[in-house]
Protein backbone atom coordinates (compact mmCIF):
# COMPACT_ATOMS: atom_id res chain seq x y z
CA UNK A 1 0.00 0.00 0.00
CA UNK A 2 1.23 3.52 -0.76
CA UNK A 3 1.96 6.13 1.89
CA UNK A 4 -0.56 8.09 3.89
CA UNK A 5 0.06 11.42 2.16
CA UNK A 6 -0.29 9.92 -1.32
CA UNK A 7 -3.53 8.18 -0.34
CA UNK A 8 -4.99 11.32 1.20
CA UNK A 9 -4.12 13.41 -1.84
CA UNK A 10 -5.71 10.84 -4.13
CA UNK A 11 -8.94 10.75 -2.11
CA UNK A 12 -9.19 14.51 -1.58
CA UNK A 13 -8.70 15.16 -5.30
CA UNK A 14 -11.31 12.56 -6.26
CA UNK A 15 -8.82 10.40 -8.19
CA UNK A 16 -9.73 7.39 -6.03
CA UNK A 17 -12.52 6.78 -3.60
CA UNK A 18 -11.92 5.97 0.05
CA UNK A 19 -14.13 2.91 -0.43
CA UNK A 20 -11.97 1.59 -3.29
CA UNK A 21 -8.79 2.05 -1.30
CA UNK A 22 -10.31 0.44 1.78
CA UNK A 23 -11.38 -2.61 -0.21
CA UNK A 24 -7.82 -2.96 -1.53
CA UNK A 25 -6.49 -2.70 2.01
CA UNK A 26 -8.90 -5.29 3.40
CA UNK A 27 -8.09 -7.68 0.56
CA UNK A 28 -4.37 -7.34 1.18
CA UNK A 29 -4.81 -7.93 4.90
CA UNK A 30 -6.89 -11.05 4.22
CA UNK A 31 -4.29 -12.45 1.81
CA UNK A 32 -1.01 -11.43 3.42
CA UNK A 33 -1.35 -10.68 7.14
CA UNK A 34 -1.65 -14.21 8.54
CA UNK A 35 2.06 -15.20 8.38
CA UNK A 36 2.98 -12.10 10.39
CA UNK A 37 0.71 -12.91 13.35
CA UNK A 38 0.23 -9.16 13.69
CA UNK A 39 -3.54 -8.53 13.36
CA UNK A 40 -5.97 -9.44 16.15
CA UNK A 41 -9.24 -7.97 14.84
CA UNK A 42 -10.52 -6.43 11.58
CA UNK A 43 -13.22 -3.73 11.81
CA UNK A 44 -14.50 -4.04 8.23
CA UNK A 45 -18.07 -2.85 8.86
CA UNK A 46 -17.25 0.38 10.72
CA UNK A 47 -14.38 1.03 8.31
CA UNK A 48 -16.71 0.80 5.29
CA UNK A 49 -19.14 3.22 6.93
CA UNK A 50 -16.31 5.68 7.55
CA UNK A 51 -15.09 5.34 3.96
CA UNK A 52 -18.59 6.01 2.62
CA UNK A 53 -18.82 9.11 4.80
CA UNK A 54 -15.51 10.43 3.45
CA UNK A 55 -16.58 9.78 -0.14
CA UNK A 56 -19.80 11.68 0.52
CA UNK A 57 -17.83 14.66 1.82
CA UNK A 58 -15.62 14.67 -1.29
CA UNK A 59 -18.67 14.42 -3.54
CA UNK A 60 -20.18 17.41 -1.74
CA UNK A 61 -17.03 19.46 -2.32
CA UNK A 62 -15.95 19.37 1.31
CA UNK A 63 -12.45 18.57 2.58
CA UNK A 64 -12.43 15.37 4.70
CA UNK A 65 -9.11 16.28 6.30
CA UNK A 66 -5.35 15.78 5.88
CA UNK A 67 -5.62 11.99 6.32
CA UNK A 68 -8.65 11.51 4.05
CA UNK A 69 -9.28 7.83 3.39
CA UNK A 70 -6.02 6.61 4.99
CA UNK A 71 -6.44 3.18 6.63
CA UNK A 72 -4.66 2.59 9.93
CA UNK A 73 -4.43 0.16 12.82
CA UNK A 74 -3.85 0.46 16.56
CA UNK A 75 -2.17 -1.63 19.20
CA UNK A 76 -4.67 -3.80 21.04
CA UNK A 77 -4.76 -1.50 24.09
CA UNK A 78 -6.62 1.45 22.53
CA UNK A 79 -10.34 1.76 23.27
CA UNK A 80 -12.38 1.04 20.13
CA UNK A 81 -16.07 1.80 20.46
CA UNK A 82 -18.12 -1.39 20.59
CA UNK A 83 -15.21 -3.74 21.33
CA UNK A 84 -13.58 -4.89 24.57
CA UNK A 85 -10.14 -3.41 25.25
CA UNK A 86 -8.08 -6.54 25.86
CA UNK A 87 -4.48 -5.22 26.11
CA UNK A 88 -3.44 -8.46 24.46
CA UNK A 89 -4.82 -10.68 27.23
CA UNK A 90 -7.45 -13.40 27.37
CA UNK A 91 -8.31 -12.00 30.80
CA UNK A 92 -10.34 -9.19 29.17
CA UNK A 93 -11.54 -10.94 26.01
CA UNK A 94 -15.13 -10.78 27.32
CA UNK A 95 -14.90 -7.41 29.05
CA UNK A 96 -17.67 -4.86 28.46
CA UNK A 97 -17.12 -3.06 25.15
CA UNK A 98 -15.66 0.42 25.10
CA UNK A 99 -18.33 3.09 24.84
CA UNK A 100 -16.20 5.40 22.69
CA UNK A 101 -12.93 5.50 20.81
CA UNK A 102 -9.69 6.51 22.47
CA UNK A 103 -8.98 10.20 22.01
CA UNK A 104 -6.09 9.53 19.61
CA UNK A 105 -8.37 7.47 17.37
CA UNK A 106 -11.00 10.19 17.53
CA UNK A 107 -8.48 12.82 16.36
CA UNK A 108 -7.26 10.65 13.51
CA UNK A 109 -10.80 9.89 12.35
CA UNK A 110 -11.65 13.58 12.51
CA UNK A 111 -8.73 14.13 10.13
CA UNK A 112 -10.22 11.55 7.72
CA UNK A 113 -8.29 8.40 8.67
CA UNK A 114 -10.10 5.04 8.74
CA UNK A 115 -9.49 2.52 11.53
CA UNK A 116 -9.36 -1.02 10.13
CA UNK A 117 -7.52 -3.25 12.61
CA UNK A 118 -6.29 -3.87 16.12
CA UNK A 119 -2.78 -5.25 16.36
CA UNK A 120 -0.79 -7.78 18.38
CA UNK A 121 1.31 -6.90 21.42
CA UNK A 122 3.02 -8.39 24.45
CA UNK A 123 0.34 -9.02 27.07
CA UNK A 124 -0.28 -5.77 28.97
CA UNK A 125 2.66 -4.29 26.99
CA UNK A 126 5.15 -6.05 29.29
CA UNK A 127 8.01 -7.05 26.98
CA UNK A 128 10.14 -6.10 24.00
CA UNK A 129 9.33 -9.08 21.77
CA UNK A 130 5.55 -9.40 21.05
CA UNK A 131 5.49 -12.99 22.24
CA UNK A 132 1.80 -13.29 23.10
CA UNK A 133 0.32 -16.37 24.76
CA UNK A 134 -3.13 -15.76 23.20
CA UNK A 135 -2.38 -14.45 19.70
CA UNK A 136 1.09 -15.88 19.05
CA UNK A 137 4.46 -14.33 18.27
CA UNK A 138 4.55 -11.49 15.74
CA UNK A 139 7.06 -12.11 12.97
CA UNK A 140 9.35 -9.65 11.26
CA UNK A 141 8.36 -9.10 7.60
CA UNK A 142 12.03 -8.75 6.68
CA UNK A 143 12.60 -12.33 7.89
CA UNK A 144 9.73 -14.42 9.23
CA UNK A 145 12.11 -16.43 11.41
CA UNK A 146 12.88 -13.32 13.48
CA UNK A 147 11.12 -11.19 16.06
CA UNK A 148 9.48 -7.91 15.15
CA UNK A 149 10.23 -6.50 18.60
CA UNK A 150 7.72 -5.22 21.09
CA UNK A 151 5.64 -4.58 22.82
CA UNK A 152 4.09 -2.84 19.79
CA UNK A 153 5.29 -5.52 17.38
CA UNK A 154 2.01 -5.99 15.53
CA UNK A 155 1.80 -2.25 14.90
CA UNK A 156 5.30 -2.26 13.41
CA UNK A 157 4.96 -5.45 11.35
CA UNK A 158 1.86 -4.41 9.38
CA UNK A 159 3.43 -1.10 8.36
CA UNK A 160 6.81 -2.66 7.55
CA UNK A 161 5.00 -5.22 5.39
CA UNK A 162 3.22 -2.46 3.47
CA UNK A 163 -0.23 -3.62 4.60
CA UNK A 164 -1.14 -0.34 6.34
CA UNK A 165 0.30 3.14 5.75
CA UNK A 166 0.61 3.83 9.49
CA UNK A 167 -0.31 2.53 12.90
CA UNK A 168 -0.29 3.56 16.53
CA UNK A 169 1.65 1.88 19.31
CA UNK A 170 2.54 2.72 22.87
CA UNK A 171 5.96 3.20 24.41
CA UNK A 172 6.74 2.79 28.09
CA UNK A 173 10.38 1.73 28.01
CA UNK A 174 10.98 1.42 24.26
CA UNK A 175 7.92 -0.39 22.94
CA UNK A 176 7.74 1.82 19.82
CA UNK A 177 11.44 2.48 19.30
CA UNK A 178 12.51 -1.17 19.59
CA UNK A 179 10.14 -2.59 16.94
CA UNK A 180 10.72 0.47 14.71
CA UNK A 181 14.44 -0.30 14.78
CA UNK A 182 13.99 -4.03 14.16
CA UNK A 183 11.50 -3.61 11.29
CA UNK A 184 13.09 -0.55 9.66
CA UNK A 185 10.47 2.14 10.29
CA UNK A 186 10.12 5.59 11.72
CA UNK A 187 8.77 5.31 15.26
CA UNK A 188 8.20 8.13 17.74
CA UNK A 189 8.08 8.20 21.51
CA UNK A 190 6.92 11.77 22.09
CA UNK A 191 7.62 14.10 24.97
CA UNK A 192 5.92 12.44 27.92
CA UNK A 193 2.29 13.51 28.07
CA UNK A 194 2.35 15.38 24.75
CA UNK A 195 -0.03 13.04 22.88
CA UNK A 196 -3.49 12.04 24.18
CA UNK A 197 -3.58 8.99 26.47
CA UNK A 198 -7.32 9.02 27.20
CA UNK A 199 -8.76 5.61 26.36
CA UNK A 200 -5.42 3.77 26.34
CA UNK A 201 -5.02 0.77 28.66
CA UNK A 202 -2.09 1.68 30.95
CA UNK A 203 1.04 -0.28 31.72
CA UNK A 204 3.06 2.12 33.89
CA UNK A 205 1.29 5.45 33.76
CA UNK A 206 4.23 7.62 34.77
CA UNK A 207 6.12 6.39 31.67
CA UNK A 208 3.39 5.52 29.14
CA UNK A 209 3.11 7.41 25.84
CA UNK A 210 1.57 6.70 22.44
CA UNK A 211 3.11 7.31 19.06
CA UNK A 212 2.97 6.44 15.34
CA UNK A 213 4.83 4.01 13.12
CA UNK A 214 5.30 5.13 9.50
CA UNK A 215 7.28 4.14 6.43
CA UNK A 216 7.93 7.77 5.48
CA UNK A 217 9.04 10.84 7.34
CA UNK A 218 6.40 13.04 5.70
CA UNK A 219 3.66 10.70 6.95
CA UNK A 220 5.12 10.80 10.48
CA UNK A 221 5.12 14.59 10.56
CA UNK A 222 1.50 14.95 9.40
CA UNK A 223 0.20 12.28 11.78
CA UNK A 224 2.07 13.85 14.68
CA UNK A 225 0.59 17.24 13.82
CA UNK A 226 -2.92 15.75 13.85
CA UNK A 227 -2.36 14.02 17.19
CA UNK A 228 -0.48 16.87 18.86
CA UNK A 229 -2.63 19.69 17.49
CA UNK A 230 0.43 21.79 16.68
CA UNK A 231 2.72 22.57 13.77
CA UNK A 232 5.93 20.62 13.17
CA UNK A 233 7.75 23.78 12.06
CA UNK A 234 10.66 24.78 14.27
CA UNK A 235 12.80 27.94 14.28
CA UNK A 236 15.16 26.63 11.58
CA UNK A 237 18.27 27.39 13.62
CA UNK A 238 21.39 25.26 13.17
CA UNK A 239 20.99 21.97 15.03
CA UNK A 240 23.58 21.36 17.74
CA UNK A 241 24.41 17.65 18.04
CA UNK A 242 26.11 15.44 20.58
CA UNK A 243 26.75 11.71 20.66
CA UNK A 244 25.78 9.70 23.72
CA UNK A 245 28.77 7.71 24.96
CA UNK A 246 29.33 5.42 27.91
CA UNK A 247 26.75 2.63 28.01
CA UNK A 248 25.26 3.90 24.75
CA UNK A 249 28.57 3.25 22.98
CA UNK A 250 28.63 -0.31 24.32
CA UNK A 251 26.40 -3.07 22.97
CA UNK A 252 26.17 -1.27 19.65
CA UNK A 253 26.27 -2.60 16.09
CA UNK A 254 29.28 -1.39 14.07
CA UNK A 255 26.93 0.04 11.43
CA UNK A 256 25.20 2.15 14.06
CA UNK A 257 28.52 3.41 15.34
CA UNK A 258 29.68 4.27 11.80
CA UNK A 259 26.40 6.07 11.05
CA UNK A 260 26.61 8.15 14.21
CA UNK A 261 30.16 9.15 13.32
CA UNK A 262 29.04 10.06 9.78
CA UNK A 263 26.13 12.14 11.08
CA UNK A 264 28.11 14.05 13.69
CA UNK A 265 31.85 13.50 13.12
CA UNK A 266 32.91 16.53 15.16
CA UNK A 267 30.16 16.37 17.77
CA UNK A 268 31.18 16.02 21.40
CA UNK A 269 30.61 12.68 23.10
CA UNK A 270 28.71 13.07 26.35
CA UNK A 271 28.41 10.42 29.02
CA UNK A 272 25.30 10.12 31.15
CA UNK A 273 26.13 9.48 34.81
CA UNK A 274 24.31 6.74 36.73
CA UNK A 275 22.88 5.22 33.54
CA UNK A 276 22.83 1.67 34.93
CA UNK A 277 21.09 2.87 38.05
CA UNK A 278 18.59 4.77 35.94
CA UNK A 279 17.70 1.62 34.01
CA UNK A 280 17.33 -0.34 37.24
CA UNK A 281 15.07 2.34 38.68
CA UNK A 282 13.02 2.32 35.47
CA UNK A 283 12.56 -1.45 35.78
CA UNK A 284 11.49 -1.02 39.40
CA UNK A 285 8.96 1.75 38.70
CA UNK A 286 7.54 -0.14 35.73
CA UNK A 287 7.18 -3.34 37.75
CA UNK A 288 5.64 -1.56 40.71
CA UNK A 289 3.07 0.44 38.73
CA UNK A 290 2.18 -2.56 36.56
CA UNK A 291 1.89 -4.85 39.57
CA UNK A 292 -0.34 -2.45 41.46
CA UNK A 293 -2.59 -2.01 38.44
CA UNK A 294 -3.18 -5.75 38.13
CA UNK A 295 -3.07 -6.74 41.81
CA UNK A 296 -6.80 -7.42 42.12
CA UNK A 297 -6.94 -9.42 38.87
CA UNK A 298 -3.90 -11.45 39.95
CA UNK A 299 -5.60 -12.28 43.23
CA UNK A 300 -8.80 -13.23 41.40
CA UNK A 301 -7.43 -15.31 38.49
CA UNK A 302 -3.64 -15.39 38.29
CA UNK A 303 -3.64 -18.42 35.98
CA UNK A 304 -5.36 -16.44 33.22
CA UNK A 305 -2.21 -14.33 32.75
CA UNK A 306 0.66 -15.17 30.41
CA UNK A 307 3.02 -17.00 32.83
CA UNK A 308 6.02 -14.80 31.94
CA UNK A 309 4.00 -11.63 32.45
CA UNK A 310 2.24 -12.95 35.57
CA UNK A 311 5.45 -13.63 37.47
CA UNK A 312 6.85 -10.17 36.80
CA UNK A 313 3.57 -8.48 37.76
CA UNK A 314 3.41 -10.43 41.02
CA UNK A 315 6.99 -9.44 41.82
CA UNK A 316 6.13 -5.81 41.08
CA UNK A 317 3.03 -5.89 43.25
CA UNK A 318 5.15 -7.06 46.19
CA UNK A 319 7.70 -4.23 45.96
CA UNK A 320 7.70 -2.00 49.07
CA UNK A 321 6.22 1.47 48.71
CA UNK A 322 9.40 2.98 50.11
CA UNK A 323 11.52 1.45 47.36
CA UNK A 324 9.15 2.81 44.71
CA UNK A 325 9.31 6.29 46.29
CA UNK A 326 13.12 6.11 46.35
CA UNK A 327 13.19 5.19 42.64
CA UNK A 328 10.89 8.09 41.76
CA UNK A 329 13.06 10.50 43.76
CA UNK A 330 16.11 9.26 41.87
CA UNK A 331 14.19 9.71 38.63
CA UNK A 332 13.59 13.39 39.41
CA UNK A 333 17.30 13.91 40.10
CA UNK A 334 18.32 12.00 36.99
CA UNK A 335 15.96 14.04 34.81
CA UNK A 336 17.44 17.26 36.18
CA UNK A 337 20.90 15.95 35.34
CA UNK A 338 19.78 15.10 31.81
CA UNK A 339 18.25 18.55 31.33
CA UNK A 340 21.60 20.07 32.26
CA UNK A 341 23.44 17.65 29.98
CA UNK A 342 21.29 18.39 26.92
CA UNK A 343 21.11 22.15 27.53
CA UNK A 344 24.03 23.07 25.18
CA UNK A 345 22.63 20.83 22.43
CA UNK A 346 19.42 20.27 20.49
CA UNK A 347 19.70 16.53 19.74
CA UNK A 348 21.55 13.62 21.32
CA UNK A 349 22.24 10.65 19.04
CA UNK A 350 22.31 7.03 20.25
CA UNK A 351 21.51 3.51 19.03
CA UNK A 352 17.84 2.50 19.23
CA UNK A 353 18.51 -1.21 19.82
CA UNK A 354 21.78 -3.02 20.50
CA UNK A 355 21.41 -5.33 17.50
CA UNK A 356 19.19 -6.50 14.65
CA UNK A 357 16.15 -8.72 15.20
CA UNK A 358 16.97 -11.96 17.02
CA UNK A 359 15.62 -15.33 15.85
CA UNK A 360 12.30 -16.51 17.25
CA UNK A 361 13.60 -19.99 18.01
CA UNK A 362 16.37 -18.54 20.22
CA UNK A 363 15.19 -15.09 21.35
CA UNK A 364 18.37 -13.99 23.05
CA UNK A 365 20.80 -11.15 22.36
CA UNK A 366 24.43 -10.47 23.24
CA UNK A 367 24.72 -7.94 26.09
CA UNK A 368 28.07 -7.30 27.78
CA UNK A 369 29.48 -10.48 26.29
CA UNK A 370 26.70 -12.79 27.51
CA UNK A 371 23.49 -14.02 25.89
CA UNK A 372 20.44 -12.55 27.63
CA UNK A 373 16.65 -12.68 26.98
CA UNK A 374 15.58 -10.35 24.17
CA UNK A 375 12.21 -9.87 25.85
CA UNK A 376 13.94 -7.92 28.63
CA UNK A 377 17.11 -6.44 27.12
CA UNK A 378 16.21 -5.16 23.65
CA UNK A 379 15.34 -1.93 25.45
CA UNK A 380 18.76 -1.38 26.98
CA UNK A 381 19.24 1.88 25.04
CA UNK A 382 15.62 3.08 25.03
CA UNK A 383 14.64 2.54 28.65
CA UNK A 384 16.91 5.22 30.17
CA UNK A 385 15.48 7.79 27.74
CA UNK A 386 11.90 6.94 28.73
CA UNK A 387 13.04 7.56 32.30
CA UNK A 388 13.57 11.25 31.43
CA UNK A 389 10.34 11.85 29.52
CA UNK A 390 12.32 13.36 26.62
CA UNK A 391 11.09 12.82 23.05
CA UNK A 392 12.96 10.10 21.19
CA UNK A 393 12.63 9.36 17.48
CA UNK A 394 13.74 5.99 16.11
CA UNK A 395 14.93 6.43 12.52
CA UNK A 396 15.93 3.57 10.19
CA UNK A 397 19.42 3.28 8.75
CA UNK A 398 19.13 2.79 4.99
CA UNK A 399 20.17 -0.87 4.58
CA UNK A 400 18.40 -2.40 1.56
CA UNK A 401 18.70 -6.19 1.51
CA UNK A 402 19.88 -6.33 5.12
CA UNK A 403 18.11 -6.68 8.44
CA UNK A 404 16.91 -3.27 9.66
CA UNK A 405 18.56 -1.28 12.41
CA UNK A 406 17.75 2.13 13.86
CA UNK A 407 19.15 5.12 15.70
CA UNK A 408 17.53 7.30 18.35
CA UNK A 409 17.36 11.07 17.94
CA UNK A 410 16.70 12.40 21.43
CA UNK A 411 15.45 15.94 21.92
CA UNK A 412 14.55 18.43 24.58
CA UNK A 413 10.99 18.32 25.95
CA UNK A 414 8.72 19.63 23.19
CA UNK A 415 11.53 19.33 20.66
CA UNK A 416 9.87 16.94 18.20
CA UNK A 417 9.95 19.47 15.30
CA UNK A 418 13.74 19.66 15.52
CA UNK A 419 13.99 15.87 15.54
CA UNK A 420 11.88 15.77 12.37
CA UNK A 421 14.03 18.41 10.65
CA UNK A 422 17.24 16.54 11.47
CA UNK A 423 15.69 13.27 10.25
CA UNK A 424 14.83 14.95 6.94
CA UNK A 425 18.42 16.12 6.54
CA UNK A 426 19.74 12.59 7.18
CA UNK A 427 17.24 11.09 4.74
CA UNK A 428 18.40 13.55 2.07
CA UNK A 429 21.99 12.45 2.67
CA UNK A 430 21.01 8.80 2.16
CA UNK A 431 22.08 7.77 5.65
CA UNK A 432 18.55 6.92 6.75
CA UNK A 433 15.39 5.78 5.00
CA UNK A 434 12.96 2.90 4.75
CA UNK A 435 13.80 -0.17 2.65
CA UNK A 436 10.68 -2.33 2.35
CA UNK A 437 11.00 -6.13 2.58
CA UNK A 438 10.55 -8.38 -0.42
CA UNK A 439 7.29 -10.23 -1.03
CA UNK A 440 6.30 -12.85 -0.24
CA UNK A 441 7.93 -12.50 3.17
CA UNK A 442 10.81 -14.92 3.52
CA UNK A 443 14.11 -14.67 5.13
CA UNK A 444 17.57 -15.61 6.07
CA UNK A 445 19.03 -12.28 5.14
CA UNK A 446 22.01 -10.94 7.01
From TrEMBL:
Sample GO molecular function, one term: catalytic activity
Pfam families in the cross-refs: Amidase
Domain of life: Bacteria
Signal peptide: none
Family matches, as InterPro entries: Amidase, Amidase_dom, AS_sf, Carboxybiuret_hydro_AtzE
Amidase domain residues: 24-237, 293-419
SUPFAM superfamilies according to UniProt: Amidase signature (AS) enzymes (SSF75304)
Name of this protein: Amidase
Source species: Sphingobium cupriresistens LL01
Lineage start: Bacteria, Pseudomonadati, Pseudomonadota, Alphaproteobacteria, Sphingomonadales
Amino acid sequence: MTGAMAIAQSVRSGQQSATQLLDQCLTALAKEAAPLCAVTRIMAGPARRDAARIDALVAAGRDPGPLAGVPFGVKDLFDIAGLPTTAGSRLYADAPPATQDAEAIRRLKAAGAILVASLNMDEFAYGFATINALHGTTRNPHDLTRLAGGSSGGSAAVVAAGLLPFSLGSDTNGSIRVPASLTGLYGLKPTHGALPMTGVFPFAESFDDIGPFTASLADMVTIWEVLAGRSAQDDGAPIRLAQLGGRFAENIDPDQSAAIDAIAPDAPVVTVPDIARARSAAFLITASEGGRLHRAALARDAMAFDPQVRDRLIAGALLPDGLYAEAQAFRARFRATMLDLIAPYDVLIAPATPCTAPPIDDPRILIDGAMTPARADLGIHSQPISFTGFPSFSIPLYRPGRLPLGLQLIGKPGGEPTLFRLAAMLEQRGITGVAMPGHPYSGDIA
